[in-house]
């Protein structure tokens, strides 16, 4: 059994080597080929097939069926099979949040049905990529920590990644650790392993890209911790404060998304130096902390459709006529102008919520002007 | 011949004793190093189960994580056609396939209800009145690794208040309200392996039940339990201290009884102080391992209360007895201190009543809270304020008395230079040792206050970046507990009556021997136990 698995692993490595060899033989344009080998899909795609996964069976999925896992991630998947539903949930949550945060921007976090989820846009080391990575990492931390509290995972908090045999003893002695910390550690292993698997030459673009991803993943993970709230409870003699116990309260993911969007707006441009470290491109800017996002390249032009960069263009996007902001027609349509359609719609209004699950609304009829970019 | 060991012990012996006490104090701090923090929490996210037949309300029907129909509240489509009575929030304690052990002593449950803001659906009142239908069941491990079916433990319908704030300047769709935690229950014993909480939030428009509730996205239950490791360390400390304090008490009482006179008031106080400490040290926690004792929390409150009451009264009497003004011919008794002691009594009794109302009722209903009805709140506040006031009066009394003692001492000190050298040295030593003990009391009190403030700061400021393996909180707890034990042991030992006749100490001049014998004749009245007081009496005669 063990032998066959070892053999299989060797076999996989051989096949991979063969693949790289073939790839090397047919290199025409080195940069695009490198890009292709770099982005053999992303694990974030798990979030897109989440619903299919859930419908097929209620149990944990098999690791082979999961798309976009790197070899290291596949190994972790086998070790922590029960965590994969939570990872997929986290990815889905991140994708939804990304769409929400960018709904009024030129790049609207459009998801494509390809292995990269976001299309070729994600291969460019831009601000948007930085945000997407941070948000995905945050989504997994959030989702794993939540799943821990749901009783879905067998041993989180009680162990530091490994599962000791005398778990019961440890639990009786000192209780289980914090779930948020566990989520952070698991995500650190699961998401970062991609960037650590391959070694690049120091100072190359690929190495810089790996460093950038690592930095942004960390920023995303920290965002979850930063936004969590510490709550304490006194429970000493007669409820006095001689004994006080505190715990972390998970933030709503929308808050984390807003926080990371602010970080996106204030992201720092960096470059990779010859020693293989990230360096500020503009020395005048303040040095980014572990909570800040960094990027290497300028964003592509999202105004026009471009299949190479993966930009979909802003044509046909609804915009706000009166807003001077980024969602205003002036900026969103890149100066091309907009079409206006008048329509009369029925809308739910003056809603009142009734516990548990009813919303009592009135129906209002309003005339609506919708503007779309030319 | 009255006189305590404190005055008659040679400097060398005293230093040896003090070293031993300090070392045992250090040992108590070190013991805290090996133990984990006193309590841990576990956050449990409620699984929302659907109860198809809410009308036949059976108390033996339980919903756990394996319930057949689960829904997610944030997905609006999954809640269509359901009403509030269909929803059961199931929380299984503990998580992760663990089971509780009796070493974990007790369980506190806090509810966190996440209410989400939706555009145009603002809460009508930020103070939400909740009616919770909460039921607890328990289950045990069977020998073949399975679980026994859920069995009814307790249930109650209780009212709670939740204060929700929403930052108006920051209104955003999908943001949660900032709501306060809702204290739910307190179990005095963890005798069973698994517990299950089934929570319902019934809705009734006519009776205005839960009408103020907004869109609930999640309900978390935060459970706090003692750590088994800490209990083990704590109980071992008690097991060590109990026989020691008992032995010292027996020795002390033997010594008092071997005297020809009747025991003095201070000696009665000392022996009862030792008694309350022994009661506090009695390791009855061992019984919780074999018996279900839900009254343990209440009992430990009582034990601590009795000990503190005794300690506070002792300080009063101790200062009073060293007032250095002798009313001759009258035997000191507690009656003389009734004014001072009544502040202690009033404070302790009001705290006891408060405790009976909260923890006492918990024995019958773990969900009970005195704070939810206006009458209960007023009552509880009255008792707490009463206790606070009497504590204030007590400290005012104590400080005034201590100030008087020190004033008297300084007056007598000015007389000292006119005495012969041997006597002066002797009395100076006594005053010094008396002050030393006052100083020790002050240090003990200061250390206690500082360390509890520190432990609360440490708990509140936990950081993620630094991995702290050292548990400061438990070190502080064992250290302070050990400190008071050491303090009272020291009192019992140093204030035990001495057999030594202090005039037999080498005295150089002949004339002084006469003076000493005269002094000793004066001080043979049974109410004086310290030669410090006798010195003052002597000075008064002069």
TrEMBL record, chain A:
Subcellular location: Secreted, Extracellular space, Extracellular matrix
Keyword Kinase: no
Gene3D superfamilies named in the record: 3.30.2460.20
A Pfam match: wnt
PROSITE patterns in the record: WNT1
Gene Ontology MF: a single term: frizzled binding
GO cellular component: extracellular space
Domain of life per record: Eukaryota
Main localization of the protein described in the UniProt heading: secreted
InterPro entries, A to Z: Wnt, Wnt_C, Wnt_CS
Keyword tags: Developmental protein, Disulfide bond, Extracellular matrix, Glycoprotein, Lipoprotein, Secreted, Wnt signaling pathway
Biological process according to GO: canonical Wnt signaling pathway; cell fate commitment; cell morphogenesis; developmental growth involved in morphogenesis; muscle organ development; neuron differentiation
Family indicated by similarity: Belongs to the Wnt family.
Role description: Ligand for members of the frizzled family of seven transmembrane receptors.
Protein name in the entry: Protein Wnt
Organism: Sitophilus oryzae
From TrEMBL, chain B:
Entries under InterPro entries matching the protein: WLS-like_TM, WLS_GOLD, Wntless
A Gene Ontology cellular-component term: endosome membrane
Membrane topology field: Multi-pass membrane protein
Residue stretches making up the Wntless GOLD domain: 47-225
Membrane-spanning residues: 233-253, 265-286, 306-325, 376-403, 430-454, 474-496
Main location (coarse class): endoplasmic reticulum
Domain Wntless-like transmembrane: 227-499
Gene Ontology molecular functions: Wnt-protein binding
Subcellular location(s) per record: Endoplasmic reticulum membrane; Endosome membrane; Golgi apparatus membrane; Postsynaptic cell membrane
GO biological process: intracellular protein transport; segment polarity determination; Wnt protein secretion; Wnt signaling pathway
Keyword terms of this UniProt record: Cell projection, Developmental protein, Endosome, Golgi apparatus, Membrane, Postsynaptic cell membrane, Segmentation polarity protein, Synapse, Transmembrane, Transmembrane helix, Wnt signaling pathway
Family: Belongs to the wntless family.
Subunit architecture: Interacts with wg; in the Golgi. Interacts with Vps35, a component of the retromer complex; wls stability is regulated by Vps35.
Known role: A segment polarity gene required for wingless (wg)-dependent patterning processes, acting in both wg-sending cells and wg-target cells. In non-neuronal cells wls directs wg secretion. The wls traffic loop encompasses the Golgi, the cell surface, an endocytic compartment and a retrograde route leading back to the Golgi, and involves clathrin-mediated endocytosis and the retromer complex (a conserved protein complex consisting of Vps35 and Vps26). In neuronal cells (the larval motorneuron NMJ), the wg signal moves across the synapse via the release of wls-containing exosome-like vesicles.
The name this protein goes by in its record: Protein wntless
Organism listed in the record: Sitophilus oryzae
Origin organism lineage: Eukaryota, Metazoa, Ecdysozoa, Arthropoda, Hexapoda
Gene name for this UniProt entry: LOC115888866
């Amino acid at each position: 059994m063990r032998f066959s698995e070892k053999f299989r692993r060797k076999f996989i490595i051989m096949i991979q080597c063969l693949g790289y060899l073939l790839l090397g033989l047919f290199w025409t344009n080195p940069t695009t080929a490198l890009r292709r080998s770099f982005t053999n899909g992303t694990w974030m795609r798990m979030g897109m097939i989440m619903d299919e996964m859930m419908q097929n069976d209620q149990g944990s999925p098999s690791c082979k069926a999961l798309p976009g896992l790197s070899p290291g991630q596949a190994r972790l998947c086998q070790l922590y099979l029960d965590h994969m539903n939570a990872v997929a949930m986290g990815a889905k949550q991140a994708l939804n949040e990304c769409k929400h945060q960018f709904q009024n921007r030129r790049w609207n976090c459009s998801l494509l049905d390809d292995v990269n989820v976001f299309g070729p846009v994600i291969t460019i080391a831009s601000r948007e990529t930085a945000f997407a990575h941070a948000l995905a990492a945050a989504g997994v931390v959030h989702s794993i920590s939540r799943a821990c509290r749901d009783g879905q995972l067998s041993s989180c908090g009680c162990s530091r990644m490994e599962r000791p045999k005398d778990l019961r003893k440890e639990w009786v002695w000192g209780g289980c650790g914090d779930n948020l910390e566990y989520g952070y550690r698991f995500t650190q292993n699961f998401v970062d392993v991609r960037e650590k698997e391959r070694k690049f030459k120091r100072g190359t673009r690929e190495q810089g890209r790996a460093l950038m991803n690592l930095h942004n993943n960390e920023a995303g993970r920290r965002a979850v911790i930063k936004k969590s709230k510490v709550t304490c409870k006194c429970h000493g003699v007669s409820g006095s404060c001689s004994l006080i116990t505190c715990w972390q309260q998970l933030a709503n993911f929308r808050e984390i998304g807003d926080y990371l969007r602010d970080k996106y707006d204030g992201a720092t441009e960096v470059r990779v130096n010859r020693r293989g470290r990230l360096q500020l491109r503009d020395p005048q800017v303040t040095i980014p902390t572990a909570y800040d996002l960094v990027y290497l390249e300028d964003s592509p032009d999202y105004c026009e459709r471009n299949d190479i960069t993966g930009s979909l263009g802003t044509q046909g996007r609804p915009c706000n006529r009166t807003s001077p902001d980024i969602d205003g027609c002036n900026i969103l349509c890149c100066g091309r102008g907009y079409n206006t359609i008048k329509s009369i719609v029925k809308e739910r209004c003056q809603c009142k919520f009734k516990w548990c699950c009813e919303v009592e609304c009135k129906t209002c009829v309003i005339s609506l002007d919708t503007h779309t970019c030319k | 011949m009255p006189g305590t060991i404190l005055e008659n012990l040679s400097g060398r012996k005293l230093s040896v004793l003090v070293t031993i006490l300090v070392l045992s104090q250090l040992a108590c701090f070190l013991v805290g190093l090996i133990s984990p923090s006193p309590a841990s929490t576990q956050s449990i996210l409620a699984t929302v189960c659907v109860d198809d037949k809410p009308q036949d309300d059976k108390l033996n029907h339980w919903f756990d994580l394996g319930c057949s129909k689960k829904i997610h509240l944030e997905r609006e489509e999954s809640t269509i056609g359901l009403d509030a009575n269909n929803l059961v929030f199931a929380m299984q304690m503990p998580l992760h396939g663990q089971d509780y052990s009796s070493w974990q002593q007790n369980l506190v449950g806090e509810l966190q209800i996440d209410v989400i803001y939706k555009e145009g659906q603002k809460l009508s009142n930020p103070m939400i009145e909740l009616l919770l239908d909460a039921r607890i069941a328990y289950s045990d491990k069977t020998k073949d690794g399975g679980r026994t079916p859920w069995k009814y433990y307790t249930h109650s319908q209780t009212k709670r208040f939740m204060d929700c704030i929403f930052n108006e300047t920051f209104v955003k769709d999908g943001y949660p309200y900032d709501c306060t935690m809702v204290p739910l229950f307190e179990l005095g014993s963890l005798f069973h392996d698994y517990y299950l909480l089934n929570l319902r939030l019934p809705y009734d428009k006519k009776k205005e039940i839960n009408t103020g509730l907004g869109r609930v996205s999640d309900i978390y239950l935060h459970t706090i339990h003692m750590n088994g490791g800490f209990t083990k360390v704590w109980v071992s400390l008690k097991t060590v201290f109990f026989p020691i304090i008992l032995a010292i008490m027996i020795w002390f009482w033997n010594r008092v009884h071997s005297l020809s006179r009747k025991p003095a008031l201070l000696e009665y106080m000392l022996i009862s102080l030792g008694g309350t400490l022994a009661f506090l040290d009695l390791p009855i926690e061992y019984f919780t391992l074999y018996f279900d004792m839900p009254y343990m929390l209440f009992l430990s409150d009582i034990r601590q209360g009795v000990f503190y009451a005794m300690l506070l009264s002792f300080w009063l009497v101790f200062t009073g007895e060293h007032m250095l003004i002798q009313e001759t011919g009258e035997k000191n008794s507690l009656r003389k201190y009734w004014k001072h002691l009544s502040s202690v009594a009033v404070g302790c009794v009001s705290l006891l009543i408060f405790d009976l109302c909260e923890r006492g009722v918990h024995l019958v209903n773990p969900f009970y809270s005195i704070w939810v009805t206006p009458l209960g709140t007023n009552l509880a506040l009255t008792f707490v304020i009463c206790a606070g006031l009497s504590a204030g009066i007590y400290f005012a009394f104590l400080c005034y008395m201590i100030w008087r003692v020190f004033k008297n001492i300084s007056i007598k000190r000015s007389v000292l230079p006119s005495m012969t050298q041997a006597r002066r040295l002797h009395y100076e030593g006594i005053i010094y040792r008396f002050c030393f003990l006052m100083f020790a009391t002050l240090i003990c009190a200061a250390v206690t206050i500082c360390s509890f403030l520190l432990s609360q700061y440490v708990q509140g400021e936990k950081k993620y970046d630094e991995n702290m393996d050292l548990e400061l909180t438990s070190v502080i707890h064992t250290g302070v507990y050990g400190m008071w034990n050491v303090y009272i042991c020291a009192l019992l030992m140093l204030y035990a009556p001495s057999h030594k006749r202090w005039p037999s100490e080498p005295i150089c001049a002949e004339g002084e021997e006469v003076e000493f014998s005269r002094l000793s004749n004066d001080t043979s009245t049974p109410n004086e136990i310290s030669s410090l007081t006798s010195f003052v009496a002597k000075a008064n005669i002069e």
